[in-house]
Design brief:
181 residues, mainly beta, 9-stranded antiparallel sheet, 2 helices, globular
Length: 181
C-alpha cells in the first residue's frame, strides 16, 4: 500500500471519529493503523485501528470501518499459556454485521467480498447498532462488515497479539506493508 493511501485513510478515519465526538490526540491521529491485509483493496477488505493501550493484561482500541468495508475472517489462537484473545465489540456509530461460528438463519445482510467467497466460512449473524455489544470468545472464527454509512466499534479485550491471528484466507498479510509514493 502506498504512503499516500495510508495518510488519506488515517485522515478519513480520524474525521469519522471526530464526527461522533471521539477526539484523538495529534499522536493518535498520526498513528492510526491502516490494515489492508495485503489484499490490495482497502475499500473492500480493510480496517483502520486506533490502539489506546495494549498490555500483558488488557487492550482498548477503536475500529473504524468505511462504508461496506470488511475485516476478513480470522481467529485469535492460544499463544503460550494464554488461551487467545477475548474481545468485546461495542458499536459506537453506524451498523456492523458481525459473523461468528454457529447456526445461520439462511441469508445474511453483509456481502461477502467478491473473489474471496472461499475464505468466509462462518455466518451466524450479530447485528450491532450504537450502544449494543457482543463478546467473542478466544479461538472463535469471526469477520465483520460495516453498513452503508460505515461503522465505529470500540474493542475491549485481553492482550492483542495481531501477529498471531489466523486468517482463513492464506493471502492475508496482517502487519501492514507501506511503500513510499
Amino acid at each position: 500500500m502506498k504512503r499516500s493511501e495510508v495518510v488519506a485513510a488515517q485522515q478519513r478515519a480520524a474525521d469519522m471519529l471526530d464526527a461522533i465526538g471521539i477526539i484523538l490526540t495529534p499522536q493518535e491521529r498520526a498513528h492510526v493503523e491502516v490494515a489492508e491485509f495485503g489484499l490490495g483493496n482497502l475499500a473492500l477488505q480493510g480496517l483502520q485501528l486506533v490502539t489506546y493501550i495494549n498490555t500483558d493484561r488488557y487492550c482498548a482500541k477503536e475500529l473504524v470501518l468505511f462504508p461496506n468495508q470488511t475485516c476478513p475472517e480470522h481467529l485469535h489462537p492460544p499463544v503460550g499459556d494464554d488461551p487467545g484473545k477475548t474481545e468485546t465489540f461495542r458499536c459506537r456509530h453506524g451498523v456492523v454485521y458481525l459473523y461468528v461460528e454457529g447456526g445461520n438463519g439462511g441469508t445474511i445482510q453483509a456481502e461477502v467480498p467478491a473473489g474471496s467467497e472461499a475464505y468466509y466460512t462462518v455466518f451466524h449473524e450479530i447485528e450491532l447498532h450504537p450502544g449494543q455489544q457482543y463478546t467473542i470468545p478466544p479461538g472463535t472464527k469471526h469477520w465483520f462488515q460495516a453498513g452503508d454509512t460505515g461503522a465505529i466499534v470500540s474493542e475491549f479485550s485481553s492482550t492483542s497479539r495481531d501477529e498471531f491471528d489466523i486468517f482463513t484466507d492464506p493471502n492475508v498479510v496482517r502487519i501492514p506493508v507501506v511503500t513510499e509514493d
